[in-house]
Specification:
Layout (H helix, E strand, L loop, with lengths): L6 H5 L24 H13 L8 H6 L1 H13 L3 E5 L2 H11 L7 E5 L5 H8 L3 E5 L10 H7 L4 E7 L8 H10 L3 E5 L7 E2 L2 E2 L6 E5 L12 E5 L2 H10 L24 H35 L2 E3 L6 E3 L4 E6 L9 H10 L4 E2 L10 H4 L16 H10 E5 L6 H16 L1 H15 L1
Parallel strand pairs: 2-3, 2-4, 4-5, 5-8
Antiparallel strand pairs: 1-9, 6-7, 6-11, 8-9, 10-12, 12-14, 13-14
Helix pairs in contact: 2-10, 4-10, 5-6, 5-9, 10-14
Bound molecules: pyridoxal-5'-phosphate.
Length: about 425
């Protein structure tokens, strides 16, 4: 089969060695994508004079944010959706309403944004870090099961980058041990596992609508659930502990005000129409990039899994093998990609528990709580293998072709680039 990447391009000098970058700013899709529909929707809220959602569940359901909640929940196949101020609050709310009490252990991913873990101590629980699967970067079911103790109350899994964890096995584990299962879907707007949406497999699924996400509103979040009982608690805890059946000034639970505004609901309703189309375009370009990378070798896509029937993206994750690039360290490879004008990165850089907030955390006896935590796969993924590319790049086929071309020519010149990186490291040291 002839190569999809032209030979002259492979032979040309990489940007890190002084060649012209393959990606130009023009190739990048503008983000966020918006236009008159968003402007008109915001003006409608302004002119209506109704800028908040209202107090009762019925009032909330009637407004623009209420309509968005139902549409988003339907897109994922959930019975209930409740919008909140952001994805961080959504996760804390799901844990609190789901019954996590002070002292309960909650198993969390070591490979995610910090919030997947900090939500637990913020509601009084103890975060216990699970390791990741090297082929998918997702929390490994074996690691989860090995960490379950008498004190375990819940599991938080993340759809890291939008790629689902093994929900078949993880839902079985949660059922077997009668644990609350919360899916952190901040990265996974639109993701489906076996035809059913992310956020509907556990007891609750939480999402973020922060600016950089696939469905942005500046800030915002939602909690999905299929349980009427949990939905009632979520409503109450997000609304200062009110009960639907009682008066506006009767407060029954110690709780926050996490209500979303109508402004965000207006933007999100329009963005939801866009994200559905964007998701399909991103999937097509991601598939193309995966084909190209498999042809080049050395930088592989995450394992393809037919159970992922739709994939929302926060980033496209790749597995780097330095031995295919003359031993070039991952950091030097990422620099070479960035020199080509490509939005490449290394994810969050380290397992969550290596952040100072957890390194300094002590247990009830004053000992450092995470001194003995070991996540060898997550350590190796962060240090050696994980490369990421932000989701907006997947909106541009030209950029995807440039990415593949850049990997091919960096590989063809790997000995020189690796030598240059070693020289720079010697000078710096
Ligand atoms: C995995 C994950 N969970 C939760 C959050 C929190 O979302 P927010 O920024 O809306 O609070 C983020 C934010 O990026 C995230 O990446």
């Amino acid at each position: 089969m002839p190569s999809a990447i032209p030979t002259h391009l492979v032979r040309s000098k990489p940007a890190i060695l002084g060649g012209a970058p393959l990606a130009t700013p023009r190739m990048r899709a503008k983000w966020p994508v918006f236009g008159n529909p968003e402007r008109d929707a915001l003006l409608r809220v302004l002119n209506s004079g109704k800028w908040w959602r209202g107090g009762t569940r019925v009032e909330m359901a009637k407004g623009v944010t209420g309509r968005f909640e139902r549409a988003f929940a339907k897109w994922h196949g959930a019975r209930h959706g409740l919008c909140v101020t952001n994805g961080t609050a959504a996760l804390e709310l799901a844990l609190r309403a789901g019954g996590v009490e002070p002292g309960d252990e909650v198993i969390v991913p070591s490979l995610s944004f910090v919030v997947s873990a900090t939500a637990v101590p913020l509601v009084g629980g103890i975060a216990v870090f699970a390791d990741a699967d090297p082929e998918t970067f997702q929390t490994s079911p074996e690691s989860i099961e090995a960490l379950i103790t008498r004190k375990t109350r819940a599991i938080v899994v993340v759809h890291y980058g939008g790629y689902p964890p093994d929900l078949d096995r993880i839902t079985r584990i949660a059922k077997k041990h009668k644990l609350l299962l919360v899916e952190d879907c901040a990265h996974a707007q639109g993701t489906q596992w076996r035809g059913r949406g992310a956020g509907t497999w556990g007891d609750a699924g939480t999402f973020s609508f922060q600016m950089s996400k696939a469905l942005p509103a500046g800030e915002g979040g939602i909690v999905l659930s299929n349980s009427d009982v949990l939905a009632e608690k979520l409503y109450s805890y997000h609304h200062l502990g009110r009960l639907e059946s009682q008066g506006f000034y009767d407060f029954h639970r110690l709780a926050w005000n996490l209500r979303m505004t109508e402004w965000q609901g207006a933007i999100l309703s329009e963005q939801l129409k866009r994200v559905k189309k964007q998701t399909l375009a991103k999937m097509r370009n991601a598939c193309l990039l995966s084909d190209r990378l498999e042809e080049i070798g050395g930088l592989l896509p995450l394992k393809r899994d037919p159970r992922i029937t739709r994939r929302g993206y926060y980033f496209y994750g790749m597995r780097y093998d330095a031995s295919a690039f003359a031993g070039m360290p991952k950091a030097a490879f990422v620099k070479a990609l960035q020199a080509e004008g490509l939005p490449a990165g290394s994810g969050y850089g380290r397992p969550i528990q290596n952040n100072p907030v957890f390194q300094q955390m002590r247990d009830e006896r004053g000992r450092l709580r995470y001194a003995k935590t070991r996540t060898p796969n997550a350590d190796r993924i962060c240090a050696e293998t994980q490369i990421t590319m932000g989701h907006t790049a997947l909106l541009s086929r030209e950029l995807i072709e440039a990415f593949a071309g850049a990997v091919a020519r960096i590989k063809a010149h790997a000995p020189q680039i690796a030598a240059q990186a070693r020289g720079k490291a010697r000078l710096a040291g």
